[in-house]
Amino acid sequence: MCMCTVEKKGNLFILTLTGEDEHRLNPTRIDAIRSALNRIRSDSTSHSCSALITSAQGKFFSNGYDLAWAGSSPDKIRLMSSKLRALVADLISFPMPTIAAVTGHACAGGFILAFSHDYVVMRKDRGFLYMSEMDIGLKIPAWFMALISCKIGDPVVRREVVLKAKKLTAEQGVKRGIVDAAYDSAEETVKGAIELGEKLTQKGWNKQVYSENRKQLYKEILDQLGVDETTDDLNKVSIAASKL
Amino acid sequence: MCTLEKRGNLFLLTLTGDDQHRLNPTLITSLLSALSQAKAQSTRGCALITVAQGRFFSNGFDLAWAQSAGSKQGAQERLLHLVESFKPVVAALLNLPMPTVTAVTGHASAAGFALALSHDYAVMRRDRGVLYMAEVDIGLSVPDYFMALFKEKMGAASARRDLLLRGLKMKGDEAEKRGIVEAAYDSDGEVREASVRMGEDLAKRKWDGEVYAEIRKGLYPELSAMLGLATKVFASPRL
User: Fold this and answer.
1) CATH code 2.60.40.1120 for B2-188+204-227
2) Deepest of A90, A168, B8, B232, by most Cβ within 10 A of its Cβ?
């Protein structure tokens, strides 16, 4: 089953999560995304400057981990966590600017996936940014917190996102300084991402230097990616799965 | 010195009396006992609200008690004792398995300000009362865990600098504008009502208290580490 496609548009690579489902982050989907990123990485050697845009079809950008698939199996939970951490490592070391065109709901792991990109643009007519963990009774791992801490500078907004589990629209995200721009529709959002991508590629940046600088900027995240202390928390994960 | 009342889903912690609610061994013990009680009685969907009677929220450590030791060394030892024994109060608030709101009903100074800041949310009066870190004016250093509290709860470096290095006495409107309190209200009655409303709204979410506390500690990792609060890892499922 095809889970994502990659389209080349000039210097830009557009990775789209396909299908009308919730784009849950199970090992199969994560592998598909990582494999697409690998292809882009090797393709881009012929261009000095490219940019990545990640988008999705349907009502969801991504609703996070596939808790239904994992059930209460500790091995499955650990596998999903380890794969997502590897994907985030890929994105943080990616040799070009990255833009998340959030065309639908981005929840929990999906929120993390969006914010693993350098820039986040989003549609304003529907969809929420939502760290749902508090509402479903799941502890947030330290590496998620490190990412949130690096990408959301204001402790008041971090508290709102993490401790209040607030569902933020694109406009609310822009007002709080966490979303770069809000657009009227999914199509407009992708167009906006493309415009931003083109502006960034015009700078002619060196890919390796961009990657290294980003790794330094988000070193705090990379330092925490080696472990997920919550994947032993079996009881909580099965409580969450039963709430689905 | 302080009382704990349960009203529906809300735990109401009140600093009693018309005095400055100075943090001395007696009040600190009383606070620890109240927080321990709230923790023991906590259920899903409750919240803590901390208020004070009189003109003061709390004016900080009981320096008069420290100085009544008789000698300079004795006073220093007593002050250090207060700094150390207040740490568990901040830790208890950080560990509390429910959302916490404080209505800063009067002046909150030094350790009193830290007490307010140890809550998840704060509301304040605009007509009276200031937030004030007096240490720079009276010549006392600020404990490391107060610094961590400021750093992790207050994003604006300029606000931290103005409060800590300039001894700024911040009133409600400015505190609201700079994001240090959620909102400022026109009177004592209004700010208390607002804190209860906020507590009820948070309690309505019916969050699992244990998970809430773990996420809170994850949100303030430096402070948690400094207070010796390990985050729990549930290693064995309940069969």
Assistant:
1) no
2) A168
Q: What residues of chain A lie within 8 A of the CB of B153, using their CB?
A: 155
Interface test with B, best of A144, A152, A156 (most B CBs within 10 A): A156
Q: Sort out which chain A residues have CB atoms less than 8 A from B231's CB and list them.
A: 139, 142, 229
Question: Could you give the residue ranges of the DSSP H alpha helices within chain B?
Answer: 25-40, 63-67, 72-95, 111-117, 135-138, 144-153, 157-164, 172-177, 188-203, 209-219, 221-226
> What ipTM was assigned to the predicted interfaces of this complex?
0.71
Query: Of the candidates B155, B214, B221, which has its C-beta nearest A153's C-beta?
Result: B155
Cβ contact B234–A232 (<8 Å): yes
Return the domain boundaries, chain A: 4-202
Which of B155, B214, B235 shows the shortest C-beta gap to A156?
B155
List the beta bridge partners of residue B5.
Answer: B12
A160 in reach of chain B (CB within 8 A): no
What does each of the 239 residues of chain B score in pLDDT, given as a tens digit? 999 999 999 999 999 999 999 999 999 999 999 999 999 999 999 999 999 999 999 999 999 999 999 899 999 999 999 999 999 999 999 999 999 999 999 999 999 999 999 999 999 999 999 999 999 998 888 999 999 999 999 999 999 999 999 999 999 999 999 999 999 999 999 999 999 999 999 999 999 999 999 999 999 999 999 998 876 654 333 33
Looking up tokens 């890892």, which residue turns up? Answer: B233
* Nearest chain A CA: its distance from B189 CA (Å): 26
Q: Pick the residue from chain A with its C-alpha nearest to B154.
A: A155
Nearest to B120 among A141, A163, A235 (CB): A163
Does the distance separating the beta carbons of A140 and B218 come in below 8 Å? Answer: yes
Check CB contact of A167 with chain B, cutoff 8 Å.
no
Q: What is the pTM of this model?
A: 0.82
Kindly list the domain boundaries of chain B, sorted by start residue. 2-188+204-227
